[in-house]
Specification:
The chain has two helices and five strands; from the N terminus they run ααβββββ. With about 100 residues, it is an alpha+beta fold. It has a five-stranded antiparallel β-sheet with strand order 1-5-4-3-2, with no helix packed on it. β2 and β3 form a beta hairpin.
């Protein structure tokens, strides 16, 4: 009788150990993880064309013009209205963006 109890305890322990080591994955969960796609959305920040900045915080270039860097973009001061405009190629020909030395 004692040997029967020992066999039963040993059988019970081995079934518990063997059931814990099995890696059972249901087929439905595998399909859902493969079909689920997480899409990352890019945050699009709008870049203003015109900003108003105090001249005390703006920097001065070598030729005397004021500029301000914001989010990796450079804004140049318009001498006519005092606002800072995002850089574009037409600023080279515009008299309002030229330095005081170049205007003469």
């Amino acid at each position: 009788m004692l040997t029967n109890r020992i066999y039963i305890v040993i059988l019970f322990i081995t079934t518990i150990i063997s059931s814990c080591t099995k890696k059972n994955h249901p087929a439905t969960s595998v399909k859902t993880t493969e079909t689920t796609v997480v899409k990352k959305r890019k945050v699009v920040s709008t870049i203003p064309k015109v900003i108003i900045v105090n001249d005390k915080v703006a920097k001065r270039s070598v030729d005397g013009r004021y500029y301000y860097d914001l989010q990796g973009h450079r804004y140049w001061r318009n001498n006519k209205d005092g606002k800072y405009y995002l850089f574009h190629k037409s600023m080279f020909d515009d008299e309002d963006f030229k330095s005081p030395e170049q205007k003469q």
